[in-house]
Design goal:
alpha/beta; two-stranded parallel sheet; elongated; 313 residues
Length: 313
């Protein structure tokens, strides 16, 4: 079996077990046809298949598991630890349960971005995965009491928890901190505001922690530089596939990515170089060769469709 056939077999298994049949054989063949540089097409297709075989796709079942882990590890356990500490390291289960219920009742969960974006979309799965009351989920405007002459933060809220799928660069969180979070903190400095992500790059976490007013910034899974798939420190190389090299993969991904998305974002937004996708969307930090729809100058059939934010119509 040659290397390409072996990779196609791996991709077939991934497609049938984890990828929700997003990359069936006809679609993969159509996608491979776009790697048509006459000088390097055989090598290009081999490296494209290798990168595809390393792609991580999180379907709704896996997303629910991650959201359950987020609530358990980043919210529930820290609050319980604080309750125990405030009560002389108590092991009284009923006391802990009662106090946690009080804290949760004064907590509100929100999505980053407007109601149509992925952070808000995840709230539905988050509520289901953790069996939470729907009254704990609100829009940003519901943080304030609008019956006053000047909108004020509601007295019954002590904690705000923002949920998001990925922080690749930290840009959106920083923008939120400079607007909404700053406004809330100005009125109620002691209100605890957390920002929890399913995934975040190490650099994004550091940037958000350093430059925002969030009291807690955490990710279920932290992506260090080794997750940048064609960087020198890539965890995906050296490859155990004959004919596949880091240098050739990088050159191929950049060459076709530039045709699709331009030089600055040939390897993903802010040079993200990720091989990551979710059932609800594909981050623009992921290699464009996997998700880009193409354009008039370069036709392209994506394997995993990304739903862009349409700012102008």
């Amino acid at each position: 079996m040659n290397p390409s056939e072996k990779l196609l077999g791996q991709i077939k298994t991934l497609n049938e077990t984890l990828w929700d049949h997003q990359a069936n054989e006809p679609r993969v063949k159509q996608w491979l046809g776009h790697f048509d540089d006459p000088k390097d097409s055989v090598s290009d297709r081999l490296h494209a298949l290798y990168l595809l075989s390393s792609f991580s796709y999180f379907n709704q079942r896996l997303l629910r598991e991650l959201l359950h882990a987020m609530f358990r590890d980043r919210i529930r356990y820290p609050v319980i630890s604080d309750i125990r500490r405030r009560h002389d390291d108590t092991t009284d289960v009923e006391l802990i349960r009662s106090e946690f219920k009080k804290v949760l009742g004064r907590t509100r969960f929100l999505g980053i971005g407007n109601p149509s974006e992925s952070g808000t979309h995840l709230l539905y799965l988050f509520r289901q995965a953790n069996r939470l009351d729907k009254e704990l989920f609100i829009h940003t405007h519901e943080v304030f009491d609008w019956t006053q002459s000047r909108p004020t933060v509601l007295d019954e809220i002590d904690r705000l928890v923002f949920i998001d799928d990925l922080a690749g660069s930290g840009t959106q969180a920083i923008r939120y901190s400079r607007g909404f979070v700053k406004q809330v903190k100005a009125q109620k400095p002691n209100l605890h505001i957390a920002y929890h992500m399913l995934f975040a790059t190490t650099k994004a976490l550091a940037q958000i922690r350093r430059t925002t007013q969030f009291d807690q910034v955490d990710a279920v899974c932290e992506l260090d530089d080794s997750f940048r798939c064609v960087a020198d420190e890539s965890r995906y190389f050296p490859a155990n596939v004959e004919g596949v090299t880091l240098e050739a993969a990088r050159e191929m991904a950049r060459r076709y990515g530039q045709q699709l998305a331009g030089k600055a974002t040939a390897l993903g937004f802010k040079n993200g170089q990720l091989l990551l996708g979710f059932a609800h969307n594909i981050p623009n930090n992921t290699l464009p060769i996997l998700w880009h729809r193409g354009h008039s100058n370069r036709r392209w059939s994506p394997l995993f469709e990304r739903h862009d934010k349409i700012l102008n119509t």
